[in-house]
Amino acid sequence: MIKLALFDIDGILNVAPRFSTRYTQEFGVSMDTLLEFFDGRFQECRIGQADLREELTKVKDDWKFNGSVDELLDYWFKGEVNEIREVREFIIEIKQKDIIRAAGTNQEKYRVEYLTNTLKLNEVFDKIYSSAGIGITKPDIKFFKFISDDLLIPYDEIIYWDDSQKNVDSARSLGIHAYLFEGLDKMREQFKNLTNGK
Protein backbone atom coordinates (compact mmCIF):
# COMPACT_ATOMS: atom_id res chain seq x y z
CA MET A 1 0.00 0.00 0.00
CA ILE A 2 1.34 3.41 -0.97
CA LYS A 3 1.53 5.80 1.99
CA LEU A 4 3.79 8.54 0.59
CA ALA A 5 3.81 10.32 -2.77
CA LEU A 6 7.15 12.11 -3.15
CA PHE A 7 7.84 14.68 -5.86
CA ASP A 8 10.81 16.61 -7.13
CA ILE A 9 9.85 20.27 -7.68
CA ASP A 10 11.87 21.66 -10.58
CA GLY A 11 11.10 19.95 -13.86
CA ILE A 12 7.76 18.60 -12.59
CA LEU A 13 5.69 21.12 -10.65
CA ASN A 14 7.84 24.09 -11.59
CA VAL A 15 9.27 24.23 -15.12
CA ALA A 16 11.28 27.32 -16.06
CA PRO A 17 14.49 28.28 -17.91
CA ARG A 18 17.67 27.90 -15.88
CA PHE A 19 19.06 31.02 -14.25
CA SER A 20 22.51 30.46 -15.77
CA THR A 21 21.13 30.31 -19.31
CA ARG A 22 19.13 33.52 -18.88
CA TYR A 23 21.98 35.30 -17.15
CA THR A 24 24.64 34.59 -19.75
CA GLN A 25 22.31 35.78 -22.50
CA GLU A 26 21.21 38.97 -20.76
CA PHE A 27 24.45 40.07 -19.08
CA GLY A 28 27.08 38.80 -21.51
CA VAL A 29 28.88 36.76 -18.86
CA SER A 30 30.45 33.48 -19.94
CA MET A 31 28.94 30.21 -18.79
CA ASP A 32 32.38 29.18 -17.50
CA THR A 33 32.32 32.15 -15.10
CA LEU A 34 28.97 31.05 -13.69
CA LEU A 35 29.88 27.37 -13.57
CA GLU A 36 32.95 28.13 -11.49
CA PHE A 37 30.52 29.30 -8.81
CA PHE A 38 27.77 26.71 -9.33
CA ASP A 39 30.22 23.80 -9.39
CA GLY A 40 32.07 25.25 -6.41
CA ARG A 41 30.72 27.19 -3.44
CA PHE A 42 27.10 26.86 -4.52
CA GLN A 43 27.30 23.15 -3.77
CA GLU A 44 27.95 24.09 -0.13
CA CYS A 45 24.92 26.38 -0.20
CA ARG A 46 22.76 23.49 -1.40
CA ILE A 47 23.53 21.49 1.74
CA GLY A 48 23.30 24.39 4.16
CA GLN A 49 27.06 24.69 4.70
CA ALA A 50 27.37 28.15 3.14
CA ASP A 51 25.09 31.18 2.85
CA LEU A 52 24.07 32.10 -0.70
CA ARG A 53 23.79 35.83 0.03
CA GLU A 54 27.33 35.91 1.40
CA GLU A 55 28.71 33.89 -1.50
CA LEU A 56 27.02 36.07 -4.14
CA THR A 57 28.58 39.16 -2.57
CA LYS A 58 31.97 37.71 -3.54
CA VAL A 59 31.12 37.06 -7.19
CA LYS A 60 28.53 39.62 -8.32
CA ASP A 61 31.18 42.04 -9.61
CA ASP A 62 32.69 39.28 -11.76
CA TRP A 63 29.16 38.61 -12.97
CA LYS A 64 28.81 42.28 -14.06
CA PHE A 65 25.81 42.78 -11.80
CA ASN A 66 25.54 46.37 -10.59
CA GLY A 67 22.65 45.97 -8.15
CA SER A 68 22.48 44.58 -4.64
CA VAL A 69 22.62 40.90 -3.71
CA ASP A 70 18.90 41.03 -2.90
CA GLU A 71 18.20 42.42 -6.39
CA LEU A 72 20.28 39.62 -7.89
CA LEU A 73 18.35 37.00 -5.93
CA ASP A 74 15.09 38.62 -6.99
CA TYR A 75 16.13 38.43 -10.66
CA TRP A 76 17.24 34.82 -10.19
CA PHE A 77 14.23 33.51 -8.30
CA LYS A 78 11.46 35.35 -10.16
CA GLY A 79 12.80 34.10 -13.48
CA GLU A 80 12.67 30.50 -12.33
CA VAL A 81 8.99 30.33 -11.45
CA ASN A 82 6.57 28.72 -13.85
CA GLU A 83 4.13 26.47 -12.03
CA ILE A 84 2.35 23.76 -13.99
CA ARG A 85 -1.20 24.14 -12.69
CA GLU A 86 -2.36 20.68 -13.79
CA VAL A 87 0.44 18.99 -11.85
CA ARG A 88 -0.41 21.06 -8.78
CA GLU A 89 -4.04 19.94 -9.00
CA PHE A 90 -3.01 16.28 -9.34
CA ILE A 91 -0.83 16.45 -6.23
CA ILE A 92 -3.63 18.10 -4.26
CA GLU A 93 -6.05 15.37 -5.39
CA ILE A 94 -3.85 12.76 -3.71
CA LYS A 95 -4.75 14.19 -0.32
CA GLN A 96 -8.21 12.68 -0.68
CA LYS A 97 -6.65 9.21 -0.79
CA ASP A 98 -5.06 9.41 2.69
CA ILE A 99 -1.59 9.47 1.17
CA ILE A 100 1.06 11.86 2.48
CA ARG A 101 2.32 14.29 -0.15
CA ALA A 102 5.92 15.49 0.12
CA ALA A 103 8.48 17.37 -1.93
CA GLY A 104 12.05 16.11 -2.12
CA THR A 105 14.25 18.72 -3.77
CA ASN A 106 17.87 19.80 -4.15
CA GLN A 107 17.58 23.48 -3.16
CA GLU A 108 19.46 26.03 -1.10
CA LYS A 109 17.53 27.64 1.74
CA TYR A 110 16.59 31.00 0.21
CA ARG A 111 15.12 29.49 -2.93
CA VAL A 112 13.20 26.90 -0.91
CA GLU A 113 11.68 29.75 1.08
CA TYR A 114 10.91 31.75 -2.08
CA LEU A 115 9.23 28.83 -3.85
CA THR A 116 7.30 27.85 -0.74
CA ASN A 117 5.89 31.36 -0.36
CA THR A 118 5.39 32.19 -4.04
CA LEU A 119 3.83 28.88 -5.07
CA LYS A 120 2.12 28.36 -1.70
CA LEU A 121 3.71 24.93 -1.49
CA ASN A 122 2.35 24.35 1.99
CA GLU A 123 -1.07 24.06 0.37
CA VAL A 124 0.26 21.36 -1.95
CA PHE A 125 2.60 19.32 0.24
CA ASP A 126 2.33 17.98 3.76
CA LYS A 127 6.13 18.05 4.06
CA ILE A 128 8.93 19.76 2.12
CA TYR A 129 12.36 18.15 2.25
CA SER A 130 15.25 20.13 0.80
CA SER A 131 18.92 19.31 0.51
CA ALA A 132 19.67 22.48 2.51
CA GLY A 133 17.43 21.27 5.33
CA ILE A 134 18.66 17.67 5.30
CA GLY A 135 22.31 18.44 4.56
CA ILE A 136 22.42 15.87 1.74
CA THR A 137 21.75 16.13 -1.99
CA LYS A 138 20.15 13.63 -4.30
CA PRO A 139 21.17 11.16 -5.67
CA ASP A 140 22.78 10.18 -2.35
CA ILE A 141 20.60 7.39 -0.95
CA LYS A 142 20.86 9.02 2.47
CA PHE A 143 18.49 11.70 1.15
CA PHE A 144 15.74 9.13 0.69
CA LYS A 145 16.65 7.28 3.88
CA PHE A 146 16.16 10.50 5.84
CA ILE A 147 12.64 10.97 4.47
CA SER A 148 11.67 7.35 5.06
CA ASP A 149 12.97 7.47 8.63
CA ASP A 150 11.38 10.85 9.36
CA LEU A 151 7.92 9.71 8.26
CA LEU A 152 8.34 6.10 9.43
CA ILE A 153 7.27 4.87 6.00
CA PRO A 154 9.04 1.85 4.41
CA TYR A 155 10.62 2.30 0.99
CA ASP A 156 8.17 -0.02 -0.73
CA GLU A 157 5.28 2.19 0.40
CA ILE A 158 6.70 5.27 -1.34
CA ILE A 159 6.03 6.40 -4.91
CA TYR A 160 8.40 9.04 -6.25
CA TRP A 161 8.84 11.13 -9.41
CA ASP A 162 11.93 13.03 -10.52
CA ASP A 163 13.13 14.48 -13.82
CA SER A 164 16.65 13.11 -13.25
CA GLN A 165 17.35 9.47 -14.07
CA LYS A 166 20.22 9.22 -11.59
CA ASN A 167 17.91 10.30 -8.77
CA VAL A 168 15.31 7.78 -9.89
CA ASP A 169 17.93 5.02 -10.00
CA SER A 170 19.13 5.90 -6.50
CA ALA A 171 15.61 5.73 -5.07
CA ARG A 172 14.89 2.47 -6.89
CA SER A 173 18.01 0.90 -5.37
CA LEU A 174 16.27 1.17 -2.00
CA GLY A 175 13.02 -0.36 -3.21
CA ILE A 176 11.14 2.90 -3.73
CA HIS A 177 8.66 2.92 -6.62
CA ALA A 178 10.53 5.64 -8.49
CA TYR A 179 9.71 6.97 -11.95
CA LEU A 180 11.29 9.37 -14.39
CA PHE A 181 8.76 12.13 -14.99
CA GLU A 182 7.42 11.85 -18.53
CA GLY A 183 4.36 14.07 -18.31
CA LEU A 184 1.21 14.29 -16.25
CA ASP A 185 -0.73 11.59 -18.10
CA LYS A 186 2.03 9.05 -17.53
CA MET A 187 2.31 10.07 -13.89
CA ARG A 188 -1.42 9.59 -13.37
CA GLU A 189 -1.20 6.14 -14.95
CA GLN A 190 1.76 5.12 -12.75
CA PHE A 191 -0.03 6.33 -9.64
CA LYS A 192 -3.26 4.56 -10.56
CA ASN A 193 -1.45 1.28 -11.24
CA LEU A 194 0.22 1.31 -7.82
CA THR A 195 -2.86 2.34 -5.89
CA ASN A 196 -5.25 0.05 -7.78
CA GLY A 197 -7.16 3.07 -9.01
CA LYS A 198 -8.29 4.00 -5.50
Features:
198 residues, alpha/beta, Rossmann fold, 2 domains, 5-stranded parallel beta sheet, 48% helix, elongated
Describe the structure in your own words.
There is one protein chain. The chain is an alpha/beta fold. The chain has two domains: 4-15 and 83-194, 3-Layer(aba) Sandwich (Rossmann fold); 19-78, no CATH class. It contains eleven helices and five strands. The protein has helices at residues 19-27, 31-38, 41-46, 52-59, 69-78, 85-94, 109-118, 131-134, 141-151, 165-172, 184-194; strands at 4-7, 100-105, 127-130, 158-162, 177-180. The protein has a five-stranded parallel sheet with strand order 3-2-1-4-5, sandwiched between helices. The longest helix has 11 residues, at 141-151. The mean pLDDT is 96.
Our count of helices gives: 11
Structural class: alpha/beta
Order of helices and strands: EHHHHHHEHEHHEHEH
Cα radius of gyration in angstroms: 18 Å
The coarse silhouette is: elongated
Q: Compute the number of structural domains.
A: 2
Spell out the blueprint of helices and strands.
Layout: E1 4-7, H1 19-27, H2 31-38, H3 41-46, H4 52-59, H5 69-78, H6 85-94, E2 100-105, H7 109-118, E3 127-130, H8 131-134, H9 141-151, E4 158-162, H10 165-172, E5 177-180, H11 184-194
Short synopsis of the structure:
With 198 residues, this protein is an alpha/beta fold.
